[in-house]
Amino acid sequence: MSEHEYRPKSKVGQWFNDRLPLLTLANHLTDYPTPKNLNYWWTFGGILTFCLITQIVTGLTLAMHYIAHADMAFESVEHIMRDVNYGWLIRYIHANGASMFFLAVYIHIFRSLFYGSYKSPREIIWIIGIIIYLLMMAAAFMGYVLPWGQMSFWGATVITNLFSAIPLVGEGIVTWLWGGYSVDNPTLTRFFTLHYLIPFLILGLVVLHIWALHVPGNNNPVGIDIKKPSKDTVPFHPYIVIKDGFALLMFMIVFAFFVFYSPNILGHADNYIEANPMVTPAHIVPEWYLLPFYAILRSVPDKLLGVVAMLSAILILAVLPWLDTSKIRSAVFRPLYKQFYWILVADVLILGYVGAMPAEGLYLLIARVATAYYFLHFLVILPVLGFKEKTIPIPLSITEPVLGGNPNLAMAKKKESKIE
Amino acid sequence: MSDKKTKRRDFLFTATTAVGAVGAAAVVWPMIDQMNPDASVKALASTEVDVSSVNPGNTITVLWRGKPVFIRRRTQDEIDEARSVKMEDLIHPEKDEDRAKNPEWLVMLGVCTHLGCVPLNDKGDYNGWFCPCHGSHYDTSGRIRKGPAPWNMEIPKYEFVNANTIKIG
User: Fold this and answer.
1) pTM for the full predicted model
2) Where are the domains of chain A?
């Protein structure tokens, strides 16, 4: 790569770079060779970085006004909404920002699933991504507790009680998490501390995620290994910077729509009632981004097994690079996988829907079928498909199908011979 | 390098690591234990409740250690129903006689043993309690009969100070 020969033009730059090679790093990031066929599904990495920075900046400013105490938290949030200059705006950006963050991360994850970005040699990037996703869920859950409304309180109660399913030590762990015999002030103060910490842990992992990405370079829609730099690549700046920037603007329009026109549509009205340990709201549901896992939890009629199923549904993603036995990355060349991929997308959406509905009757039945299918996809379909599927031949380079006008190698060859 | 010298180094290395590990654990424990209930939380151990105004068939809910406690004055029908259940029909077999020493009064933590929600009174398939969160049904003795909860609702330590006052804790 070119950064090895990189030398700053100015004398001062050379002096500085010899002592701390920051300019070399900047040059690497600018010249970083990127596949030239990246589509808009690849812009969500940049969008997610924007989401993280937004959450950190708005979170810092909210923390200047928020009071982490069971008696004052609810009022301090109302104080932010009514009295603090632009407090309503900052809080709505932060609250909806969490949803936007998850929206972007789900698109990012499903892009990886479609184009096989988790496969060798990118397993470590993928696993770091899963850890980031887990931390995001922890941060979102604890952040939701902070306003100390009814949903905050009972959401915290239900989720912390998941640990009581652990045999023998479960109850002790829950008491330890609470710092008492129920969710109360000690729970709130520690959740605030951890909610403040986690985004910085995520930031550190994002650096590792990008570092690990820059070793093999980006996967691409064709899913083949490419030479870097070559006629198949373009420098990150300005090509990808402009494309990411445009996608980010589009994303910000959606973001702004929620913040300014329906800031509460993704929340629950019950959270504008102050926490009351005597009354559980009639219908407890988590935020939309956790609903599929909530549906899996409820679909199992046993407490411990329900918790195990829910955690497995997330952790199974970490071993995905080894469950998927196919050597072909992109679904473009896997006609059967492509169909199962869309069934999985539908399955997760169905789980999300039934997760929001009461756990009874037909909803429960659908949740059980969808849960079974979710595990079937990862544990049976993916491993078997790698051996059974007849894949479409992959092109030798990115340029080939572009020039040939068809992603199919055989078709491209045919066209080439015609041209000759 | 002789064998003897290598062994001496190995011993020093192992011993240093072991002492270091014990030291680290000793420092980590206070960091973990500080999260357990503190002295002020533990001090709020008991509460006294006046139950003279509770009529048969009614339930009052009081807060004890941050958790709701149901105090139900049961009707004769409810007591009969609770006491006539066969042990083999129960998910978590407990005799009603053991749960309610004074059959008229049922005192229990109003906390679903599934994931900690507060069940609703006079609801569900067994005329007892129903948890709205994940659909657990409890009978008139607060015993789990149907749904994901694994145990009966817990009976706290309590005593009648006099005919009208219950001390919980």
Assistant:
1) 0.89
2) 21-284, 287-389
Q: Which residues of A touch B (CB under 8 A)?
A: 154, 157-162, 164, 175-184, 186, 190, 277-284, 298, 300-304, 306, 358-360
Query: Rounded to an integer, what distance in angstroms lies between the CA atom of residue A407 and that of residue A223?
Result: 11
CATH class of A21-284: mainly alpha
CB-CB neighbors (< 8 A) of A303 in chain B:
114-115, 148-150
User: Contact A194/A138 with Cβ under 8 angstroms?
Assistant: yes
* B66/A181 touch (CB, cutoff 8 Å), yes or no: yes
Catalytic residue among B92, B114, B134, B137: B134
Following CA atoms A7, A8, A14, A20 in sequence, which dihedral angle do they give, to the nearest 10 degrees?
Answer: -80
- pLDDT per position in chain B (169 positions), as tens? 455 667 888 999 999 999 999 999 999 999 999 999 999 888 877 888 998 888 888 999 998 888 899 999 999 999 998 898 888 889 999 998 899 988 899 999 999 998 888 999 888 889 899 988 888 899 999 999 988 888 999 999 998 888 889 999 8
Beta bridge mates, B106? B72
For A176, the token pair is 């330890």
Q: Kindly list the residues of chain B whose beta carbon comes within 8 Å of any beta carbon in chain A.
A: 32, 35-38, 41, 61, 63, 65-68, 114-118, 131-135, 147-150
B134 is catalytic: yes
Residue % of chain A over a pLDDT of 70:
94
Q: Which pLDDT does position A264 carry in this prediction?
A: 95
Fold classification of A287-389 is Helix Hairpins (1.10.287)
Q: Which of A119, A132, A41 is nearest to A382 (CA)?
A: A119
Q: Is there a contact between A181 and B67 if contact means CB atoms under 8 Å apart? A: yes
- Total residues belonging to chain A: 420
CA A177 – CA A179 distance, rounded (Å): 6
